Amino acid sequence: MMNMFNHEYERIAFFKFFPVAMLLFFLSFNVQSRASSFNETGDMAAKGDVLEISLGEAIIMALGNNKALQVERYNPRIMKTYEEGERSVFDPFLSAGIASSRERVNAESRTTGIKEDTTSGRGSAGAGVSKLLPTGTELSAELDFVKDWSDLYSDQYSTRLGFSVTQALLRGAGLDFNLAKIRQARLDTLSSAQELRGFAESLVAEIETTYWNYALAARQMEIYVQSLGLAEQQLTETQERISAGSIAEIELAAAQAEVALRKESLIEAKSNLETLRLRMLRLLNLPEGSSWSRGIKTINEPAVPDVKLDSADVHSDLALRMRPDLNQARLGVERGELEIVRTKNGLLPRMDFFISLGKTGYSDSFFRSAGDISGRSYDISAGLTFGWPVGNRQAASEHKRALLLRDRSEEALENLCQLVEFDVRSAYIRVERFYQQISATAVTRKFQEEKLRAETEKFRVGRSTGILVAQAQRDLLDSRISEVEAVVNYLNSMVELFRLEGTLLERRGISTVSI
Question: Which CATH architecture has domain 3-87+181-339+400-514?
């Protein structure tokens, strides 16, 4: 919609992987540091008890200080810990142990035939390391020291160095299965980042609409005050003319009623302005010590921006690429595909191939037994293991559930795409409607000014009544309010269009370019 955006849609990155991380960095560091700098300089052009603030400064403050956004910032970091936890499955695992045993046996000696007590024992110590690879291969290496002793023979020492490899052939085999949980955790992190992005866009939209609504309420207050002054002037003039006998006393009631109506409108306008002021203060979240009674003055006044709408199709296409909730839904479908891969592997039986190779040295001391490892003694074993849960109903139900959830996610994504297009096209229509109303209300206001001027002149020469003058004043008041409302409605409708298409942050300069 903006001129700067008319021919640069290709530059808008699809917030899915790296750009999302950069956005998070910007939201959590750049904006916050700018807001901190804002606070240190003493309230940005604040004068006395009134905070004078521009729209851009309000957005920076809200992004840097808003409590709700600070809470949301934790979610991607929390999800990142799950991703790191899944990666730990492939970390090396170190193990070590030490054990000792002793045994006494009363047995008949083979040489003498007499029962004798025989004592023997074993002491052992060992250490090993194992690692699971994404291919489903488990590697391990261990070093063991053993001492055997007995009353019947001299102490014996052995040292064994062994290596083993176990490869999953069916269940548990393959990169797709073994990396599925890591990839799912990664998608969960990206989804949380998209959620944060959507929250930030909603916050920016809220602060903008509140800013413009507050500016509108302040302008309405001015109009109501001017209108009240005009009604009071008309009342004074009516009283003077009644005193002079040029008009009947009955005309006084209409003038008094108009003053009372203006005072009622002014009271309501003050209440609305005060409510919006409190809302602005909550969104800005001023530093501790700032008072809720602090006034706000908007620097930017509602005005029609020099922009041109692109076609509805362009805005709709942008929304299908940029909307955070759509990107979250796409990540959900992708996660479902990974779940199907993972559960499908569970339908297979367990079949592993293993091979183990060891070298052992024997001697009458640990040091000599370690040196004897290079000798001719060795051990080797290899084979297959097989396992199969009869029926395998647990794995089958999990796989069926994964298929159904994937299908549901795809249907939900298609439905969301339709809703997004509907929302964007409807918002596009509202923008055009409010834009056309701006010129229409301006023309109406001019005619109402002429009408009031004519009715006032006629009243002064006795050709009109106070009721008609009051009605003309009321019509002019309504037209002036409608003219300002049309501009604010147009500004707010553009903000809503940009939010619905997912480009509000980029259009406000909150992007990777700003880092």
Answer: Up-down Bundle (1.20)
Please report, for the chain, the start and end positions of each structural domain, with discontinuous segments joined by +: 3-87+181-339+400-514, 93-132+137-171+350-387
Mention every residue, 6+ apart, whose C-beta is less than 8 A from residue 24: 73, 76, 193, 196
Per-residue pLDDT of the chain (515 residues; tens, 9 = 90+): 333 333 333 333 333 333 433 443 344 434 444 444 444 333 433 444 888 999 999 998 888 888 888 899 999 999 999 999 999 999 999 999 999 999 887 766 666 667 777 888 999 999 999 999 999 999 999 999 999 888 777 788 889 999 999 999 999 999 999 999 999 999 999 999 999 999 999 999 999 999 999 999 999 888 888 888 888 888 888 888 788 777 778 878 888 888 898 899 899 999 999 999 999 998 888 776 567 888 899 998 888 887 788 899 999 999 999 999 999 999 999 999 999 999 999 999 999 999 999 988 888 777 777 777 778 888 999 999 999 988 889 999 999 999 999 999 999 999 999 999 999 999 999 999 999 999 898 898 898 888 888 887 887 777 777 778 778 878 888 888 888 899 999 999 999 999 999 999 988 888 643 32
Under 8 Å between Cβ of 473 and 234: yes
66-70-72-78 Cα dihedral, nearest 10 degrees: 180
- Give yes or no for a contact between 468 and 459, defined as CB atoms under 8 angstroms apart: yes
Single pTM value for the model: 0.76
